């Protein structure tokens, strides 16, 4: 029987991580590599990917813009060639048309949001399914959001909420269909935390007050708060867990 510490090890695992150039993604790359994984990191900004791979041994860059789902086959092919296969997929890339009311979202904003947040994760997972079915194992961690389960009108983001809700729903269905192949699918659900995507609004005094007044743990989330949850879902620590959502929000959705 492995030790409790060994359960969280990713030694020898090969991970494909999207949205790796900033915010949670960069931290995820550091945590996954720190646990022993080799990580193919995907993002639009090649220079930032290259910098990340210099700073974090074990990472290899796979530049791509997931706003175009047609690139997903190539992403998987390049990542597989770099690492020799993929054991874990972390669908973390996200796009949000921040501050745009539901009635004002443009067709372009709607399309980009759905493509990055939902269609490309579906396509990436489908691309990996065949190899995983053949060998009888595979892990997906889909990063969603508390807006998939609660309306938050102070941050207009209707299509973003729909995309994250769709990702949670398809995760449960994948789990139901694919568990017999040894494939586990779970969601990591962040609450409010400081990142590149939230920086424009989270530091406003009224916004900070509203968030903290509705959060049981009285502070904003930090990227490091997700380290343990990510390792749990990606590693053998969660071998009997599939079709679930792990919410890391300081208790925001608990009331």
Automatic annotation (TrEMBL):
Pfam families assigned to the protein according to its UniProt record, in alphabetical order: adh_short_C2
Keywords of this entry: Oxidoreductase
This protein's record includes keyword Oxidoreductase: yes
GO molecular function per UniProt: oxidoreductase activity, acting on the CH-OH group of donors, NAD or NADP as acceptor
InterPro entries named in the record: NAD(P)-bd_dom_sf (IPR036291), Sc_DH/Rdtase_CS (IPR020904), SDR_fam (IPR002347)
Gene3D superfamilies tied to this protein: NAD(P)-binding Rossmann-like Domain (3.40.50.720)
Keyword Thylakoid recorded: no
Top-level taxon of the source organism: Bacteria
Similarity annotation: Belongs to the short-chain dehydrogenases/reductases (SDR) family.
Protein name: NAD(P)-dependent dehydrogenase (Short-subunit alcohol dehydrogenase family)
Naturally occurring in which organism (per UniProt): Pseudonocardia endophytica
């Amino acid at each position: 029987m492995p030790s409790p510490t060994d359960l969280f090890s990713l030694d020898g695992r090969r991970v494909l991580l999207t949205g790796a150039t900033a915010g949670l993604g960069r931290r995820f790359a550091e945590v996954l590599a720190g646990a022993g994984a080799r990580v193919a990191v995907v993002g639009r900004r090649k220079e930032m990917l290259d910098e990340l791979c210099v700073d974090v041994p074990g990472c290899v860059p796979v530049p791509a813009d997931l706003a175009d789902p047609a690139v997903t086959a190539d992403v998987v092919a390049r990542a597989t060639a770099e690492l020799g296969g993929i054991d874990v997929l972390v669908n973390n890339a996200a796009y949000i048309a921040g501050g745009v009311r539901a009635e004002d979202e443009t067709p372009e904003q709607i399309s980009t949001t759905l493509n990055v947040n939902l269609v490309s994760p579906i396509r990436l997972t489908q691309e990996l399914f065949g190899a995983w079915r053949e060998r009888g194992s595979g892990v997906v961690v889909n990063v969603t959001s508390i807006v998939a389960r609660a309306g938050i009108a102070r941050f207009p983001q209707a299509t973003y909420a729909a995309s994250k809700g769709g990702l949670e729903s398809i995760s449960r269905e994948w789990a139901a269909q694919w568990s017999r192949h040894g494939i586990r699918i779970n969601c990591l659900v962040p609450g409010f935390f400081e990142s590149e995507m939230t920086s424009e609004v989270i530091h406003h005094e009224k916004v900070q007050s509203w968030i903290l007044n509705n959060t049981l743990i009285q502070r904003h989330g930090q990227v490091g708060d997700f380290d343990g949850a990510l390792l749990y879902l990606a590693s053998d620590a969660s071998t009997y867990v599939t079709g679930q959502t792990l919410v890391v929000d300081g208790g925001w959705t608990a009331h």
